């Protein structure tokens, strides 16, 4: 770029742009002395600006849902049926030798009313806020990041982990939620992640998140309450893909912050046959304190199929509560998404949950989207799901999603 500026400069001088018959030779030389450094500076600044790439990205998603919970019909315009509505900044800087510095800043919102999503807690960037470096030795990043445990769902769910997914009723929140009673296993603050370079199709993820709880005196505890430790491995070979995750979490429960711990095993496998792509996924939770945390396992089977220029997705799941009696549920969902363009999709589908007498799962679109019609934040820890206890729930929906 610098050479191009010099060529342009010399050509301009030759063509007389810096000299008119009425201008003296000395003035021409002074003009050149002032213009040449300015152009050189502009050239270098332009080169530096090209080295750092910053993009604005996001999506706006709206849908109409008609929900029936045991004969209670409700209709609403909601946000985030296909993906969450969100806006963010991401950027990279090339350091040379195949090494890059990168950052992600991502904020979710509810497009139906412009408000924050549940659990935002005043965060400027509720979805992601992290910085890292990647190169031939892998990727190291710091900040608010998705857990590998959650990525197993996100990467493999056949219904795009959104409205219509048979898994989404079990995601958040409550004592028997696959992302933790508070939804804290979707992503975590104060996290450090190292991803090894992919070798022979195998990628390893190492993840630690520091709870950084404060005690009654307002200073940080040193007892590791809230810490998350997560390892995952993903293997890809042609059309075959498999991923497994183990997560350990120290939990601070209740006003006295009684310590307990939970462990999660998560596993998913898929094979793309071209005409369709079936997926099997299995999650198991172990809880040390069953008075406040339920043990369970959940399994999902589904497939996604190219159809009529779009994609048809279908899945079915079963949730087995191993702590409470008659607290099991099963669910199924299907959705069709059709692209109007590279950025805009229309979608429609139906989803249903069938609860045992002590189960109260509801239909939700997924993380960072509108919660179900009867959601009450005051019942989050002890009474979540009581509005739907023993009820069968169905929902039909139609929406539009635009990504930018």
Keywords:
Porin; disordered N terminus; 3 helices; mainly beta; 404 residues
Task: Count every beta strand, where a strand is a DSSP E run of 2 or more residues.
Answer: 17
Indicate the CATH class: Mainly Beta
Distance between the termini: 30 Å
Q: Quickly give the structural class.
A: mainly beta
Shape descriptor: globular
Q: Helix coverage percent of residues? A: 10-25%
Mean pLDDT: 86
> By CATH's scheme, which homologous superfamily applies?
Porin
GO molecular function: porin activity
Membrane topology: Multi-pass membrane protein
Protein name: Gram-negative porin
Pfam families: Porin_4 (PF13609)
Structural account:
The protein is mainly β and 404 residues long. The chain has one domain: Porin. It has helices at 2-14, 25-51, 148-156; strands at 52-69, 72-79, 86-96, 99-108, 128-135, 138-146, 187-195, 202-209, 228-237, 240-253, 258-271, 277-287, 296-307, 310-321, 329-339, 344-355, 392-403. Strand 5 (128-135) and strand 6 form a beta hairpin. The longest helix has 27 residues, at 25-51. It is globular and about 60 Å long. It starts with a helix and ends with a strand. Mean pLDDT is 86; it is low at 1-50. It comes from Parasutterella excrementihominis YIT 11859.
Tell me the layout of helices and strands:
Layout: H1 2-14, H2 25-51, E1 52-69, E2 72-79, E3 86-96, E4 99-108, E5 128-135, E6 138-146, H3 148-156, E7 187-195, E8 202-209, E9 228-237, E10 240-253, E11 258-271, E12 277-287, E13 296-307, E14 310-321, E15 329-339, E16 344-355, E17 392-403
Antiparallel strand pairs: 1-2, 1-3, 1-17, 3-4, 4-5, 5-6, 6-7, 7-8, 8-9, 9-10, 10-11, 11-12, 12-13, 13-14, 14-15, 15-16, 16-17
Helix pairs in contact: 1-2
């Amino acid at each position: 770029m610098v050479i191009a500026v010099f060529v342009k400069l010399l050509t301009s001088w030759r063509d007389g742009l810096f000299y008119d018959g009425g201008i003296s030779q000395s003035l021409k030389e002074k003009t050149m002395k002032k213009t040449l450094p300015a152009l050189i500076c502009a050239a270098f600044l332009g080169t530096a600006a090209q080295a750092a790439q910053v993009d604005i990205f996001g999506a706006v998603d709206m849908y109409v849902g008609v929900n029936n919970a045991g004969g209670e019909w409700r209709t609403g315009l909601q946000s985030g049926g296909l993906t969450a509505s969100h806006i963010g900044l991401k950027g990279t800087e090339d350091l040379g030798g195949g090494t890059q510095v990168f950052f992600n800043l991502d904020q979710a919102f509810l497009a139906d009313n412009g408000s924050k999503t549940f659990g935002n807690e005043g965060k400027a960037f509720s979805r992601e806020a992290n910085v890292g470096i990647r190169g031939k030795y892998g990727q190291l990043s710091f900040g608010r990041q998705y857990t590998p445990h959650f990525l197993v769902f996100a990467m493999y769910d056949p219904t795009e982990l959104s409205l219509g997914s048979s898994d989404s009723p079990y995601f958040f929140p409550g004592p028997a939620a696959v992302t933790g009673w508070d939804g804290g296993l979707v992503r975590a603050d104060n996290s450090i992640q190292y991803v090894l370079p992919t070798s022979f199709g195998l990628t390893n993820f190492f993840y630690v998140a520091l709870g950084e709880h404060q005690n009654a005196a307002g200073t940080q505890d040193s007892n590791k309450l809230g810490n998350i430790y997560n390892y995952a491995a993903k293997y890809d070979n042609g059309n075959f893909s498999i991923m497994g995750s183990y997560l350990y979490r120290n939990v601070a429960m209740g006003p006295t912050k009684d310590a307990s711990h939970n462990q999660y095993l998560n596993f998913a496998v898929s094979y793309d046959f071209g005409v369709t792509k079936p997926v099997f996924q299995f999650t198991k939770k172990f809880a040390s304190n069953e008075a406040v945390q339920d043990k369970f396992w959940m399994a999902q089977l589904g497939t996604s199929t190219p159809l009529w220029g779009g994609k048809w997705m279908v899945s079915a799941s079963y949730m087995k509560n191993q702590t409470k009696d008659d607290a099991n549920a099963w669910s199924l969902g299907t959705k069709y998404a059709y692209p109007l363009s590279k950025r805009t999709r229309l979608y429609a589908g139906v989803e249903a949950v069938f609860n045992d007498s002590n189960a109260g799962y509801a239909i939700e679109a997924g993380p960072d989207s509108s919660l179900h019609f009867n959601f009450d934040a005051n019942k989050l820890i002890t009474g979540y799901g009581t509005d739907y206890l023993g009820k069968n729930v169905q929902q039909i929906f139609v929406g539009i999603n635009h990504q930018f």
